[in-house]
Write a structure and sequence with these properties.
This is Amidohydrolase. This protein is an alpha/beta fold. The protein has 13 helices and 9 strands. The mean pLDDT is 97.
């Protein structure tokens, strides 16, 4: 059975309209190729990371749609100053020509962020990306105070990669994020990759702050389990926090098939209600059609 057929069989069995994938990447071509180059080099430090869907943009879009994905994102992120605003312009143009993609944006701790984030919000941005690991910046940086305040007031979800996988950064881990939430407790953070490998610490934040969600990106797959196994002690909290766990894939930058990410969730055996919530309902609640 073709991969798309296998995924649609799951969708049909669950009785959901499709999949809401909150964690996908579409970027300017030269930026995407640099990201792929980074993952090509990961094999020198850890496990090989072949990009399964290393295709042109139009093929990637067609592939994602063939899987029954109804809503996705174009998560862009800077690694240096004077980059975020350019990425935001590209992402806005991409969303204009791609109606099933959430209008996406990003930021960096720089004086201009206090201006361009509200501009992006006013233009209809529905999801932001904060990559603490790649950006190697402190989320507590005073330059980000007006950014967090604007996002908290707007209630706009932020996918935040603050866990230390696949490689730790100077400000990764739950402690810096906890201090941001102390100052901005209503932030609608979505913890990327379930916070791997610091699962427990990020689950604690989700239990403490009702607007904090977690995305499943790469978690539970054989690839991730070999590096950062999900602790059995946290399994019960997957059910307790079930209505705030959303599906993410990291498409196209994954070293396995898209269907494997879905099968990994099925194999958790947490029930159809939990699974359908993760694959569709919880994401649709965050991002109404």
């Amino acid at each position: 059975m073709a991969e798309a057929d296998r995924i649609h069989a799951v969708i049909d069995e669950l009785g959901i309209p499709g999949i809401v994938d909150v964690h996908t990447h579409f970027m300017p071509d030269r930026v995407m190729r640099k990201v792929w180059h980074y993952f090509d080099g990961v094999a020198e430090r850890a496990a090989p990371w072949p990009i399964t869907y290393r295709h042109d943009e139009d093929v990637r879009l067609a592939t994602l749609r063939s899987f029954g994905v109804q809503t996705f994102s174009s998560l862009v992120y800077p690694h240096k100053p004077d980059m975020a605003q350019w990425l935001n312009t590209w992402a806005a143009e991409f969303a204009d020509r791609t109606p099933d993609c959430l209008r996406s944006a990003t930021f960096y701790p720089e004086p201009e962020a206090a201006r361009y984030v509200p501009v992006a919000l006013n233009a209809g941005t529905r999801i932001f990306k904060s990559h603490i690991q790649v950006g190697a910046y402190d989320p507590r940086d005073p330059l980000l105070d007006p950014v967090w305040s604007a996002l908290e007031a707007a209630g706009t979800p932020i996918i935040i990669h603050a866990g230390s996988g696949p490689e730790p950064g100077p400000y990764t881990g739950p402690a810096p994020v906890a201090q941001v939430l102390e100052r901005h407790p209503a932030l609608r953070l979505v913890i990327a990759h379930m916070g791997m490998p610091e699962y427990g610490g990020f689950f604690d934040l989700a239990q403490q702050y009702p607007n904090v969600h977690l995305d499943t990106t790469m978690a539970f797959t054989g690839f991730a389990e070999a590096m950062f196994p999900f602790p059995d002690a946290e399994r019960a909290r997957l059910l307790e926090l079930g209505d705030r766990i959303v599906f993410g894939s990291d498409f196209p930058n994954i070293p396995y098939r898209y269907s494997e990410a879905i099968q990994a969730l099925i194999d958790l055996d947490l029930g159809d209600r939990w699974l359908s919530g993760v694959l569709y309902r919880n994401g649709r609640r965050l991002f109404p059609a």
